[in-house]
UniProtKB/TrEMBL annotation:
Gene designation per UniProt: grpE
BP-aspect Gene Ontology terms: protein folding
Name this polypeptide is given: Protein GrpE
Keyword Chaperone: yes
Origin organism lineage: Bacteria, Bacillati, Bacillota, Bacilli, Bacillales
Protein function: Participates actively in the response to hyperosmotic and heat shock by preventing the aggregation of stress-denatured proteins, in association with DnaK and GrpE. It is the nucleotide exchange factor for DnaK and may function as a thermosensor. Unfolded proteins bind initially to DnaJ; upon interaction with the DnaJ-bound protein, DnaK hydrolyzes its bound ATP, resulting in the formation of a stable complex. GrpE releases ADP from DnaK; ATP binding to DnaK triggers the release of the substrate protein, thus completing the reaction cycle.
Subunit structure, as described in the record: Homodimer.
Amino acid sequence: MTEEKNVQEETLPTEAVTAEAPVDSEPIDIDGDGLETKVAELEESLQASEEKYLRLYAEFENYKKRTRTELETEKTYRSQAVLRDIIPTLDNIERALSQTSADASLTKGVQMVYDNLISALTEHGLEKIEAQDQPFDPNFHQAVMQEKDESKDSGIVLEELQKGYKLKERVLRPSMVKVNE
């Protein structure tokens, strides 16, 4: 009997060899519900990661679009400050041209300078705001006076007291006008 006992002690039970699970997870129970639970958890984690990625991607695309739009707007309106500074000079040249002068060559020279200046500013997007005989628009006109004229409809600009200008769609200076009551 002692021999039998020794043989049994020498014979060790064989264990099933399994793949080692990752360090941060629990061992997977192949036969039970543990595998299905683990698969469901991994699918949820994958779905959450995909949603996070898609949100970040959409946010980045919106950022790129917003930045591109801001750069285009900046490019379009970069001359705005310079044009605002030049508008009073245009007013002064127009006043000089409206004065009758005995020296026709001087008047012609000032007119040429004015025409060249207007041409250059127009190429950079400066536009005059039409006011005379137009319906009053508070976006483009600043009413400083009212007058009654029976021959015209109410709300029509009777006289432009100071020219208004805009750059593309932005008003640099509204037209100062007299409006019919």
